[in-house]
Amino acid sequence: MIERVYIAIGSNLGDRRANCTQAIANISRIPSVRVVKISSLYETEPWGVRDQPNFINCAVEAETSCDPRTLMSILKNIEADMGRKDGPKWGPRVIDFDIIFYGSRIIKEDDLVIPHPHAHERSFVLTPLIEIEPGLMHPILKKTVSELVSRMG
Fold it and tell me: Is 93 assigned a catalytic role?
């Protein structure tokens, strides 16, 4: 079955724009994934740990035949191939992928949570998603990404 997936991408080390562009190209090369839409690149302040460089963020909408766990594993491999090292939570990184939505699925496991548990709190995730699909519905909160941003004030 083909599912629609939304992936957030961020980078705040090295050539951040080039890293995000390369990440999108790498996602496009996954045989079981077809990138449908790509947002603009946005420069944003860090979230969580403030004492680090600003991020470049974007998002992609894709169709995939991968199950969520397989897709996450492939994305983690791309991160590693691009030079991502393990570091502090919310710390600086060459590249970061988060599966924000995977169809309307709700998954709560120790190592995989979809929708992303902090997506609704992060304008750097929601703003690129609004550009791609303003009516995209959060499957738990039952609000569109546009409504979630407007509630942030």
Answer: yes
- For position 103, what pLDDT does the model report? 95
Terminal Cα-to-Cα distance of the chain (whole angstroms): 38
User: Per the residue annotation, which of 15, 50, 81, 96 is the catalytic one?
Assistant: 96
Residue-wise pLDDT for 19-33, tens only, equals: 999 999 999 999 999
* DSSP state letters, 50-110: -SSPPEEEEEEEEEE-S-HHHHHHHHHHHHHHTT----STT---S-EEEEEEETT--EEET
Please state, for a pLDDT cut of 90, what percent of the chain lies above it: 73
Supply the range of the domain harboring residue 115: 3-152
CATH number at residue 32: 3.30.70.560
Of the listed 81, 98, 110, 122, which one is catalytic?
Answer: 98
| Domains held by the chain: number | 1
Residue 86 annotated as catalytic:
no
